[in-house]
Amino acid sequence: MRKTIIAGNWKMYKTIVEAIELSNGLKREFYKLDNQGIEVVLCPPFTALSEVNEVITESEIKLGAQDCYWKDEGAFTGEVSCKMIKDAGCQFVIIGHSERRQFFAETNDTVNKKVKAALASGLTPIMCVGEMLAEREAGKTFQVLEGHVRGGLRDVSAEDAAKIVIAYEPVWAIGTGKTATPDQAQEAHKYIRDLLVKMYNKDVAGSIRIQYGGSVKPENTIDLMKQPDVDGALVGGASLQVESFSVIVKKASEVVK
Length: 257
Ligand code: 13P
Description:
- By secondary structure, this protein is an alpha/beta fold.
- Helix content is 46%, strand content 15%.
- The chain is built from 12 helices and 8 strands.
- The chain has helices at residues 16-32, 49-56, 82-87, 98-103, 108-121, 133-137, 141-152, 158-161, 182-199, 202-207, 218-225, 242-254, and strands spanning 4-9, 38-43, 62-65, 92-95, 124-129, 165-168, 209-213, 232-235.
- An 8-stranded parallel β-barrel has the order 1-2-3-4-5-6-7-8, surrounded by 6 helices.
- Strand 3 (62-65), helix 3 (82-87) and strand 4 (92-95) form a beta-alpha-beta unit.
- The chain is globular and about 45 Å long.
- The relative contact order is 0.15.
- The structure holds 1,3-dihydroxyacetonephosphate (13P).
- Residues 9, 97, 169, 174-175, 213-216, 234-238 line the site of 1,3-dihydroxyacetonephosphate (13P).
């Protein structure tokens, strides 16, 4: 049984005051849901991690960062280590988001270093994979996914791999309002799960949660979450308001598989 995991990636949005307001609002909403068997993670920008952590400490909501560096400390101006992220109260860290791959030269190799560093420090990596539109149109979706998954998990043991979360985020669906259809999402998730069986074994592949990300909204949540290999969502735009994010969480918690 895989516990559904809904994470909000706030990207480069929310000042500290705004982040406190949003997390307070979400906390109030989630108190109303009795133990819904769902994991909820907020990933604010680095500057607001500590404050959001304070807001959510006495709730079931968990905290994640949006990136990390693979060294513990040192002369690496501008970088933030897993140790620092844990210190700020995080249990999760998003790694290899397509925006980092596109705009900040993230590669499978740097993703792999970050995944290993996160695991070594006890953080759960949310490792993002996904094809661009041109790659899908050229029939290369599976090839790209294989590269991202194998590259990101190179030399990661079965025991460690079982702890990670993978987010399948087709780049063409991010921030575009163009969601993958439930069938397209299931096809990609199934491909990833089968690949994990080949790389590890059935038990490991069966315990890794695979989230879908890309224009997840209250209206499409149920159909996506109903897919057998879709174990949650990584939500961008719709995670920035109390109303839309809490409806997504409620709807996801209603889906019984
Ligand atoms: P949107 O939900 O805004 O499409 O963003 C998805 C995403 O990139 C989450 O990491």
